Amino acid sequence: TKPEASMHITERGFDMALSTIGRFGRGCYFAEDFAKADKYAEAGEGIYTDCCAMLLCRVLLGSQRLVRAKLDTFASPAPPGAGAVDSTLAEPPPPEQA
To answer: Which of 6, 74, 85, 98 fits a disulfide with 53 by CB distance 3.0 to 4.6 angstroms?
Structure first.
């Protein structure tokens, strides 16, 4: 994320109203690997020119829905009969299926 956005998050918390639809639907996205998160870092403006930001967060996933599909934009709602879920855990497909 941009430094300006990270400052906003540290001051006010994550705002779902500002989230966009990503690979697994609308929501906040987190990564276990910093290299994955680094791909989404963007340079800021003004005093943050040429600076990128990365937040280190402790995330509690709650009740998870495991998704192994490469793309599932409707992963946010729980599947019928599955009950409510709090988060989606994306497990990448094996290399031979990617």
So the answer is: 6
